Amino acid sequence: MALFGRKDGKSVFGSRKDAEPKKPERHELADIPLDSMIELSDIITYEETGDTSHAFKLVIRKKYESDSLRRYMYHIRDAEEEVVIGVDHVAGTKDDYEISRWIVDDECELGDPLPDVMTLYFPNPDSEGEDIAVEYNRQDVVPATLTLANAEGEEKFDVELHEYASDNDEYMSIELCGDWLTFYVGGLITQSDIEIYPAMEAPSERK
After folding, report:
1. Residue 58 in contact with residue 150, Cβ under 8 Å?
2. Which of 22, 45, 123, 200 could join 40 in a cystine, given CB atoms 3.0 to 4.6 angstroms apart?
3. Where is this region: Disordered (predicted)?
């Protein structure tokens, strides 16, 4: 007696195929959808807001790609300020990332070539009217492809990233896009300092 649906021990229906192949799982730090809420609980957020944690909305996503680099810069905003969260994939690993917190310090047109050493001045929180000088040394120049996503859509650009660091582990990354410079300054935070509440992805954002 033959088993229903089987002939000579084999299924007569064949194996069921999914309507479309399954997409790989997206790591929570990669390609975060626009309009997601990102909650920060790092020490700088506490010093600036007085809150142990503070929520921001993701409004711009920048993704930089090259042979040696995969980096996201997430521009997040609340009613009063904009902060940038950096996520760098650690080369040679599958799912290890470095997390950083930045601000956009300046934007301007390129004049003279960028120097190997740059000094920036920041207000001294302990002495009103005085500045603190921070000297940054260029570590690398990385050509990359930038994919910029915002509420208006998505565009690609060829850019250069000029990477600087100070002796106190403070960082500056300068994005050169055409003749336009964007100066990011910041430092490392930990993954425990960030909580992500993803928004529903729009169809155009799905990979």
Report:
1. no
2. 45
3. 1-28
Radius of gyration of the chain (CA): 23
Give 19's strand partners. Answer: none
- Bigger pLDDT: 25 or 88? 88
Domain spans, the chain: 29-200
Please say whether the beta carbons of 180 and 115 come within 8 A.
no
**Which residues partner with 160 through β-bridges?**
143, 176
pLDDT at 128: 81
Residues 6+ apart with CB under 8 A from 143: 66, 158, 159, 160
Render pLDDT for 157-176 as a digit per residue (tens, 0 to 9): 999 999 999 999 899 999 99
pLDDT at 145 over 90: yes
Amino acid 181 reads L
Q: Which residues pair with 55 in a beta bridge?
A: 39
Q: Is the pTM of this model over 0.85?
A: no
Residues 186 and 102 sit within 8 Å (Cβ to Cβ): yes
Both structure tokens of 77 = 């905003």
Tokens of 57: 């909305």
Bigger pLDDT: 56 vs 19: 56
What are the distances in angstroms from CA 183 to CA 84, 111, 117, 120, 161?
A: 12, 14, 14, 11, 10
